[in-house]
Specification:
Helix content is 85%, strand content 0%. By secondary structure, it is mainly alpha-helical. The protein has one domain. The chain is elongated. The two termini are 26 Å apart.
């Protein structure tokens, strides 16, 4: 598993590779969307584990 610092470093690298403001916005959008999906999925998993 990656550490929080590793994840931050990856995100910083992705943003630094963006060539223009549109790519910055798209990068932000993709990171945010995937984080939301993962949060929802993992919360459902954790709640199911607590209930069982």
């Amino acid at each position: 598993m990656y550490s929080i610092d590793d994840m931050k470093s990856c995100i910083q690298e992705w943003f630094s590779e963006a060539l223009n403001p549109v790519e910055v916005a798209k990068t932000y959008h993709e990171i945010q969307q995937e984080a939301e999906k993962q949060l929802e999925f993992m919360m459902e998993q954790r709640i199911e584990n607590v209930e069982n």
